[in-house]
Write a structure and sequence with these properties.
- By secondary structure, this protein is α+β, with helices and mostly antiparallel strands.
- The chain folds into 2 domains: about 15-180, Jelly Rolls, CATH 2.60.120.10; about 195-309, Homeodomain-like (Arc Repressor Mutant, subunit A).
- Helix content is about 45%, strand content about 20%.
- The chain has helices spanning about 110-120, 135-150, 160-180, 195-210, 215-220, 225-240, 240-260, 265-270, 275-290, 290-309; strands at about 25-30, 35-40, 50, 55-65, 65-70, 75, 80-85, 90-95, 100-110, 130.
- Strands 1-2-9-4-7-10 form a 6-stranded antiparallel sheet. Strands 3-8-5-6 form a 4-stranded antiparallel sheet, with no helix packed on it.
- InterPro entries: AraC-bd (IPR003313), AraC_XylS_family_regulators (IPR050204), Homeodomain-like_sf (IPR009057), HTH_AraC (IPR018060), Tscrpt_reg_AraC-type_HTH (IPR020449).
């Protein structure tokens, strides 16, 4: 069942058939981004009914299947498919081919969504098509976002990761829309001196405040750009996203402190900006090749040997 609309009530269905709406769970609520999970148990015996998107809807199917009728065409959605709907747009969802589905729904503030659409130069309407076929990159981003959003409930410092994944998912969806519908896309260009200056200023800002739960929109505002323009520019200059750069900066600071101080690993993880010890250990090991404890021990042993020589 598509996310967003208010479910109709079951008592209006004929005998033996129900009108059933999804169960909605809030995973993360940032200032301009909301992530929810929609679980539907409807099946072939349940009556489909007309609905309307209250606001622009972008959802990725994580499991199950259903049919989505919008703009006079029925789309079959399975795991990895993307459902798109514009505000006040009418639609009907049905489950004649199976029971239930799970969707990850992403709601963005209107200015942010408009910036995403304009970044891909989609003409005419917000979404050039009401649905997209499964694509591995989009599906992978959606599942990563679902995991980060679930963790955000217990660890507020994951907000930058949620924001980065959400914006990357939206950008990927608009990029795929442009490819599938033949809409013109902005050609990537070589960064200018001004672009490089803004990217460097942003990198310095990220490094100086890396222990803080920085949101991409705040860094973009610091250099006078929209979030999506900034995301594209930063990646073009440095080859990584701002969030990846921020994580690297945190790990670099952690590595320095491991050798220069006696601060326990748990305390150090929080000091450099990680809100969860296990996430810090996993990330440090992935980027450095050793756990924080082994890194500290290994390099201190080398220093002792050098001193003795």
């Amino acid at each position: 069942m598509a996310p967003g609309p208010t479910p109709a009530r079951a008592e209006h269905a004929p005998a033996g058939r129900r009108e059933i709406g999804p169960q909605v769970a809030l995973l993360a609520a940032l200032p301009d981004i909301t992530v929810t999970r929609h679980l539907c148990h409807a099946g072939p015996r349940d009556r489909p009914f007309p609905e309307q998107h209250r606001q622009a809807s972008l959802a990725v199917v994580l499991g199950g299947s259903f049919c989505y009728r919008c703009r006079d065409r029925t789309h079959a959605l399975v795991a990895g498919s993307v459902l798109l709907g514009e505000a006040e747009e009418a639609f009907v969802c049905s489950h004649e081919h199976g029971v239930g589905d799970v969707c990850l729904s992403l709601a963005l503030a209107e200015p942010l969504l408009a910036a995403a659409a304009s970044s891909e130069a989609a003409p005419g309407r917000l979404f050039a098509a009401p649905a997209l076929a499964p694509r591995p990159r989009i599906s992978a981003l959606a599942r990563a976002l679902a995991g980060a959003a679930e963790s955000h409930a217990a660890d507020a410092t994951r907000a930058p990761e949620v924001e980065a994944l959400a914006l990357a998912l939206v950008a990927a969806v608009f990029g795929e829309l442009a490819l599938q519908t033949g809409s013109p896309r902005r050609a990537d260009r070589t960064p200018s001196a001004s672009d490089r200056g803004r990217a460097i200023a942003a990198a310095q800002f990220l490094t100086a405040r890396s222990a803080e739960p920085l949101l991409l929109k705040d860094v973009a505002a610091h250099v006078g750009l929209s979030p999506f323009h900034f995301l594209r520019l930063f990646r073009a200059v440095f080859g990584v996203t701002p969030h990846q750069y921020l994580v690297h900066a945190r790990v670099e600071q952690a590595a320095a402190r491991l050798l220069e101080t006696e601060v326990p690993v748990t305390e150090l993880a929080f000091a450099v900006g990680f809100g969860d010890l296990s996430n810090f250990v996993r990330t440090f090991h992935r980027l450095v090749g050793l756990s924080p404890g082994r890194y500290r021990q290994h390099h201190r042993i080398r220093k002792i040997r050098q001193v003795r020589r």
